[in-house]
Design a protein that fits this description.
Layout: H1 3-7, E1 16-23, E2 34-43, E3 46-54, H2 63-69, H3 73-76, H4 82-93, E4 97-99, H5 103-116, E5 127-128, H6 130-137, H7 146-152, H8 163-178, H9 185-207, H10 257-265
Parallel strand pairs: 1-4, 4-5
Antiparallel strand pairs: 1-2, 2-3
Helix pairs in contact: 6-8, 6-9, 7-8
């Protein structure tokens, strides 16, 4: 631990911006957009502020998006576009540790949205991911959906799949898990990196086990064997077979039920 790090307060007491996004789909690189974003600021371990907005993506919403989030075309029509809020969002995120439940998803959308307006995330942003910690600390206890992880910790989630509620819940989950983590940011980030690498390796080993045929676990190949894709590149496995990754992966290779439904609706599962 560096001398500078030793002078800082425990990372869980520092300013943290916990964010969540709702989106039109899964692939920002293919044009999917953010339709709602919320940032809940934490300081001294408790929520201290909320910044949230709906966004007009400029395209109609898929019915599954409305079914999952409750957000309709009428809700987003006429709302700000991302360019209208980019500067304020950058300001809200600056100078804080950043947090999201399943960081790669939200971060990728923000990177693409900021790039569209010629900007970017705050320089040197440091991210904490409660999902990585939960998968380690609640190993073998069931699926890792945010609501389920929170319930095991006694944390309520009253309006799942809306950005403010999810961000608040994710922040409270992070605070609860922080009691089992090092107090220094440097050591916690080292653990996060180590555990994430182990989890990705474990996931890859499930995917590449004998009989996988190079496909996702629980999928049936053209030869009829579980593990691969059929001729159309879609899953032909019965629902029960899609849990081959175990209880931590309730929808097979996809951790998040919302993204699972997006993929299924798009014919990619």
């Amino acid at each position: 631990m560096s001398d500078a790090a030793a002078l800082l307060p425990p990372w869980a007491l520092q300013p943290i911006a916990v964010l969540d996004t709702e989106t039109t789909g899964l692939a920002p690189e293919q044009g999917d957009r953010v339709i709602e974003i919320a940032v809940i600021t934490f300081d001294q371990g408790v929520p201290t502020g909320t910044w949230a907005t709906l966004l007009d993506p400029g395209t109609p919403l898929h019915p599954d998006v409305t079914r999952i989030t409750g957000i309709t075309d009428a809700d987003v029509r006429g709302q700000p576009v991302f360019a209208d809020v980019a500067a304020k969002l950058h300001e809200v995120l600056s100078g804080k540790l950043l947090c999201a439940y399943n960081v790669p998803f939200d971060r990728s959308f923000l990177v693409h949205e900021f790039a569209r307006v010629g900007s970017g995330l705050p320089q040197g942003a440091i991210w904490l991911d409660p999902l990585v910690f939960a998968k380690q600390m609640q190993r073998g206890q069931g699926n890792m959906k945010l609501g389920t992880v929170a319930k095991r910790l006694g944390i309520p989630l009253d309006e799942a799949h809306r950005a403010s509620a999810d961000a608040t819940c994710a922040g409270n989950v992070l605070m609860a898990l922080s009691r089992m983590l090092p107090t220094t940011l440097e050591e916690t980030l080292d653990l996060q990196e180590k555990w994430q690498a182990e989890q990705e390796a474990e996931r890859a080993s499930w995917k590449n086990r004998p009989g996988s045929k190079g496909g996702r676990p629980g999928q049936r190949g053209a030869d009829g064997q579980l593990g691969g894709l059929d001729d159309a590149g879609k899953s032909a496995a019965p629902a029960f077979a899609r849990n081959a990754l175990g209880p931590g992966y309730p929808h097979g290779d996809e951790l998040d039920p919302v993204r699972y439904l997006y993929l299924r609706a798009a014919g990619r599962l």
